[in-house]
Amino acid sequence: MVSNFAKPVENLSVTNAMKEWLNVTEKKVAKIVLELKKLFPEARTELNFSTIFQLVIAVVLSAQSTDRQVNKVTEKLFLLVKEPKDLLDLGEEELSRQIRSLGLYRSKAKNLIKLAKILETEYQGQVPDSFSDLIKLPGIGPKTAEVILGVGFNKPSFPVDTHVFRVARRLGLSKAKTPTGVSLDLKKIFPHRYWLDLHHRFIFFGRKICKAKKPNCAICPFMEFCHKEELNV
Ligand code: SF4
């Protein structure tokens, strides 16, 4: 994956409306970008894949499962499945059997088979690279679509999962109540070249330091603008 951190941080700018609404200063934006880069220089997706269709499978499987559990399952599955037609050859029953250690495996298998059929019949076996096409596919919501666009196609995207949602709100970067709303706020605050790296770094920060329960605030570089207490989250 190409890093978006090649350009100097002084070019950061926050729109005036967002600045006023959230009281987010350019100094704060720069601090978040730089400190997270320092903490997690190598942050990237932990899901294993070698084709974009495999990425789609891995992201769909990751709902309510850990990346580690998904990688364990896909290690064998991806020896057989690289493209949609391979999954159709495998069939729903065998797919269900291979992924049965994951939560919601029956509905995931059903959705993936439907999705593979649509890719074969409507997209010549290719994964589409537009948000509007992706979210029409079974099992793919806005967050999954953003992950595929960013990680798979290297397009500007800021997917918001449970960690990004919590961290963004605790850091006072959004007051939105939905992941889509938070994603829109983050896209207004940070220049797009930072989006995908920040997405990964927010996840690492949320998993390792700003945890949902018992965050490790003693080592947090952002205590000065933490809103955890007033949000009560
Ligand atoms: S001070 Fe604690 S709760 Fe606040 S952002 Fe840092 S780790 Fe999270």
From TrEMBL:
Textual note on the cofactor: Binds 1 [4Fe-4S] cluster.
Cofactor(s) demanded: [4Fe-4S] cluster
Transmembrane segments: none
Coiled-coil spans in chain: none
Organism ancestry: Bacteria, Bacillati, Bacillota, Clostridia, Thermoanaerobacterales
UniProt KW keywords: 4Fe-4S, DNA damage, DNA repair, DNA-binding, Endonuclease, Glycosidase, Hydrolase, Iron, Iron-sulfur, Lyase, Metal-binding, Nuclease
Domain HhH-GPD: 61-208
E.C. number: 4.2.99.18
UniProt record similarity statement: Belongs to the Nth/MutY family.
Entry keyword annotation includes DNA-binding: yes
Helix-hairpin-helix DNA-binding motif class domain mapped to chain residues: 132-151
Function: DNA repair enzyme that has both DNA N-glycosylase activity and AP-lyase activity. The DNA N-glycosylase activity releases various damaged pyrimidines from DNA by cleaving the N-glycosidic bond, leaving an AP (apurinic/apyrimidinic) site. The AP-lyase activity cleaves the phosphodiester bond 3' to the AP site by a beta-elimination, leaving a 3'-terminal unsaturated sugar and a product with a terminal 5'-phosphate.
Keyword Transcription appears in the UniProt entry: no
Protein known as: Endonuclease III
InterPro entries: DNA_glycosylase, Endonuclease-III-like_CS2, Endonuclease3_FeS-loop_motif, HhH-GPD_domain, HhH_base_excis_C, HhH_motif, Hlx-hairpin-Hlx_DNA-bd_motif, Nth
Single biological process term from Gene Ontology: base-excision repair, AP site formation
Binding sites annotated in the UniProt record for [4Fe-4S] cluster: 210, 217, 220, 226
The protein's enzyme class: lyase
Catalytic reaction list: 2'-deoxyribonucleotide-(2'-deoxyribose 5'-phosphate)-2'-deoxyribonucleotide-DNA = a 3'-end 2'-deoxyribonucleotide-(2,3-dehydro-2,3-deoxyribose 5'-phosphate)-DNA + a 5'-end 5'-phospho-2'-deoxyribonucleoside-DNA + H(+)
One GO MF term: 4 iron, 4 sulfur cluster binding
Top-level taxon: Bacteria
